[in-house]
Specification:
Blueprint lengths: L4 E4 L3 H17 L4 H4 L2 H20 L3 H5 L3 E4 H20 L1 H27 L10 H9 L3 E2 L5 H16 L1 E4 L2 E4 L3 H15 L7 E2 L1 H9 L3 H14 L4 H22 L10 H8 L12 H24 L12 H6 L1 H14 L12 H20 L6 H15 L1
């Protein structure tokens, strides 16, 4: 049985060896064709990060003073393995994904060295852990840039590390980052894409989601992985709340108007957002009732973002990312609200029964046995897109 957490001090020589090995990885990726397309950017990036990194390794005493025990967390290991499984399944049907893997490896190596440099430069504790690998993978599950601006990937990683280190707060006596580091940079990327639509020519996001739609059984595969990933940090109730809201809203609008709210609810990127992106333990509530409320609000935010994006004719691919940071910021308030509800409503604690494994398993089986086929059969466009499209047609006709 793998323990939940392990903290172990490493010898100074071991830490140096790991950092030097990561430096070697930075250059090994250049043997792959996809990396050779951006070789100039990779080389410049490598040398710029290697100079300060090696200074702190060989010529400064900060490494010994600021290095904290290496930290292993089982939840991060499982999340990392699940990401690798997604890339493997995706790459089996799309060879461009396999070609992109060397660039992801380069980003992983760079982000560890940049994190090390920031810790040394700003006198913060340097902790070796697995956390930066899921961070890098999460960004690459939603966004790629064309070779001509591969540097944009590096910029996103730099911003994510800076947010992780400096945009923090203390909760229950423990310092933690406020925003999911991958989510905050994705939200910033969305703002840039909205303000500068021509950037879409050198950016791949909607194309990623579109390919997920044609992969056989990808959504079922993704949901099974999500069940495993959410099990360890115990964040099932967030996913259930988000999906439950969207299912309920979909049925209500379908019954009331004959047109569903979101016809592609059970598809790729929305499913990924409701099961993996929003369930970061550090930026989500800890109480069971708080998690349910958090999930319901996230589902509502997707519907709101979908409406806004549809109205302004922006690509609705970004709806599941738009309000994530706002929810991250207010996540402690969901715990307080949950505790207040429990104090006012004595039977509210019964909601914790939904956290039992049997109930969760029944929910997921029900979803894929009854709900998922319903979405598979659907052909009409989403309700809000229908409404705005009809409004535009009526206006143009007059």
């Amino acid at each position: 049985m793998i323990p939940m957490e392990i903290s172990r001090s490493l010898k100074l020589s071991t830490t140096k060896a790991i950092l030097l090995f990561i430096q070697v990885v930075l250059f090994l990726v250049l043997f792959f064709p996809e990396a050779q397309k951006v070789s100039a950017t990779i080389l410049w990036t490598n040398f710029l990060i290697l100079i300060p990194t090696n200074y702190f390794i060989f010529f400064s005493d900060k490494l010994q003073r600021l290095t904290a025990p290496a930290f292993f967390k089982r939840a991060l290991l499982i999340q990392m393995l699940m990401h690798f499984c997604i890339f493997g399944y995706w790459g089996y049907y799309n060879h461009k994904v396999l070609e992109h893997i060397p660039l992801i490896v380069h980003q992983m190596a760079f982000v560890h060295l940049f994190y090390f440099f920031c810790c040394m430069f700003f006198n913060k504790k340097f902790v070796l852990s697995l956390s930066l690998i899921p961070l890098t993978n999460s960004i690459n599950l939603f966004v790629w840039f064309s070779p001509k601006i591969y540097i944009a990937h590096i910029v996103l990683l730099i911003l994510a590390i800076l947010a992780k280190l400096f945009v923090t707060r203390k909760i229950n006596g423990k310092q933690s980052h406020i925003f999911n580091p991958s989510a905050i940079v994705l939200c910033l990327a969305i703002v840039v894409l909205i303000l500068f639509p021509r950037v879409h020519e050198i950016y791949y996001g909607p194309e990623i989601g579109a390919f997920w739609l044609i992969m056989p059984n990808f959504d079922l595969f993704l949901f099974v992985l999500s069940c495993i990933t959410l099990w360890t940090p115990n964040r099932y109730l967030i996913s259930i709340g988000a999906i439950g809201f969207l299912i309920g809203a979909d049925f209500i609008t379908d019954f009331a108007t004959g047109m569903p709210l979101i016809a592609e609810l059970a598809k790729g990127s929305v499913l990924l957002g409701t099961t993996l992106l929003i369930a970061d333990p550090a930026t989500s509530p800890n109480t069971k009732l708080g998690q349910i409320l958090f999930g319901l609000t996230y589902g509502f935010s997707i519907a709101i973002a979908f409406t806004i994006f549809s109205y302004f004719l922006w690509n609705t691919y970004y709806d599941k990312l738009f309000f994530v940071c706002l929810l991250n910021y207010f996540s402690p308030h969901f715990d307080r609200l949950g505790n207040w509800i429990k104090a006012k409503i004595p039977n509210a604690h019964e909601l914790s029964r939904f956290g039992k494994r049997e109930v969760l398993l029944a929910f997921y089986l029900f979803f894929f046995w009854f709900i998922y086929p319903r979405f598979e059969r659907r052909t009409p466009p989403p309700f809000f897109m229908n409404w705005y499209s009809l409004k535009s047609l009526v206006s143009s006709g007059n």
